[in-house]
Amino acid sequence: MSAFPQAAAPARPHPSGGPAAAELLAFALRTAADTELVGSLPLDPEGRTWIRLEGPGGSEAWLIGWPPGTGTGWHDHAESRGAFATARGRLTEHSLAVRLPSEGWQSLRLAPGHDRSRGLGPGTGRAFGEHHVHEVLNESPDEHAVSVHAYYPPLPLIRRYSRSGPVLTLEHVERPEDWQ
Q1: What is the mean pLDDT of residues 150-159?
Q2: How many domains is the chain partitioned into structurally?
Q3: Is 10 inside a domain boundary?
Q4: Are 35 and 88 a contacting pair, CB within 8 Å?
Q5: Which domain holds residue 35?
Q6: Is residue 16 part of a domain?
Q7: What's this model's pTM, rounded to 2 decimal places?
Q8: What is the residue-averaged pLDDT of the chain?
Q9: Between residues 165 and 104, the one the model is more confident about
Q10: Which residue in 37, 66, 73, 72 sits closest to 52, CA to CA?
């Protein structure tokens, strides 16, 4: 669950098939460097915008625009591993450095010391494994951010959480038809 440097390690197939997180990150970084593609994304001052992309090895990928002050809220990508890279602006990721149970709970009290935070400027990215709980934010008061995200297997669902201090509560589950 650590950040990867811009030059990712050579990709090795993931034991369960499909691209490994390092390969998804390499794709996200390459795509984020494509100024023509990044410039083609329509930006909305009120809400996030996105374009679906073809990711490597059957992965799902997105180019996303983030207006100032927007974010995802706490969520995970279920059994999908993933990566994202910032193309423009700066994003902040808050994550939990703990593996949570994938099922069978509605609310958990987190022990101290599991919160992580990192800033990601242009040309930097982050890869993560299955069940990674995080939120991504554009904390800028006046600048749009643009990023590239890739997931494998393609997202079966996204679980959304609320957070009140150390308490994480599962609020609802989104399926692909909810965001396509």
Answers
A1: 93
A2: 1
A3: no
A4: no
A5: 21-179
A6: no
A7: 0.87
A8: 89
A9: 165
A10: 37
